[in-house]
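Inverse folding, one chain.
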C-alpha cells in the first residue's frame, strides 16, 4: 500500500525534518534561485562545500540525475540535489527527465538507508514545467518506486504554492488513493 507512505503538505521544504530533502538544483550545484537558493541559504556553507567537491570530482550534475550532500544547518540529515528539466513544449524528453529526477533521488535515499524523503515540486517554478503534468509524473514515479522497494517509510511532497498543492492533492485523490 504505497499510497499510505505519501504525505502532501504546503510549506517550506527547508523547515522539513526528514532523513533527506530534495533540492531542485541547477547543473552547477552552486546555488541559484527558488528552492535551490533557499536550501543553500538555510543550510549554510557546508552544503556548498560538499557541492564544490562533487563538481571537482564529476563536473556537476546532469539533468535527471541526483547527488547527495550533508544538510548543514537544516533540520534534515541530507540534501539530495537533482536537476530538473526546463520545459520546452514537451518535445525534448522532459517527461522522462522529470521522472528520472524523482527515481534517482529515491534510489539515492535507498542506497544511503534513508527512511524519509521530502520533495519540492521539481521544475514547476522558473523551469516552467506544467504543474498538473508535473504532479502526475511525480506521483506515478514515487508510487511505482514505493511498490518495488520497501525501505522508504515516508515520502513528503512539500508544495510551496496553492496551485502545486491543488494539483498534487487532486492527482493523489483521483488516481493514487483508492476509495476506502
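Residues assigned per position:
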Amino acid at each position: 500500500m504505497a499510497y499510505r507512505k505519501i504525505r502532501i503538505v504546503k510549506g517550506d521544504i527547508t523547515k522539513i525534518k526528514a532523513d533527506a530533502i530534495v533540492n531542485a538544483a541547477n547543473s552547477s550545484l552552486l546555488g541559484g534561485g527558488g528552492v535551490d537558493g533557499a536550501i543553500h541559504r538555510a543550510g549554510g556553507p557546508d552544503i556548498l562545500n560538499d557541492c564544490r567537491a562533487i563538481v571537482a570530482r564529476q563536473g556537476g550534475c546532469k539533468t535527471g540525475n541526483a547527488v547527495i550532500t550533508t544538510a548543514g544547518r537544516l533540520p534534515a540529515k541530507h540534501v539530495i540535489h537533482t536537476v530538473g528539466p526546463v520545459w520546452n513544449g514537451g518535445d525534448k524528453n522532459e517527461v522522462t527527465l522529470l521522472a528520472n529526477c524523482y527515481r534517482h533521488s529515491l534510489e539515492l535515499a535507498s542506497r544511503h538507508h534513508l527512511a524519509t524523503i521530502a520533495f519540492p515540486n521539481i521544475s514547476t517554478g522558473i523551469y516552467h514545467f506544467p504543474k498538473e503534468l508535473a504532479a502526475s509524473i511525480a506521483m506515478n514515479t514515487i508510487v511505482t518506486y514505493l511498490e518495488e522497494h520497501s525501505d522508504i517509510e515516508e515520502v513528503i511532497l512539500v508544495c510551496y504554492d496553492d496551485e502545486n498543492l491543488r494539483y498534487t492533492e487532486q492527482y493523489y485523490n483521483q488516481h493514487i488513493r483508492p476509495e476506502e
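The first helix runs from residue 34 to 43. DSSP finds five helices and six strands in the chain.
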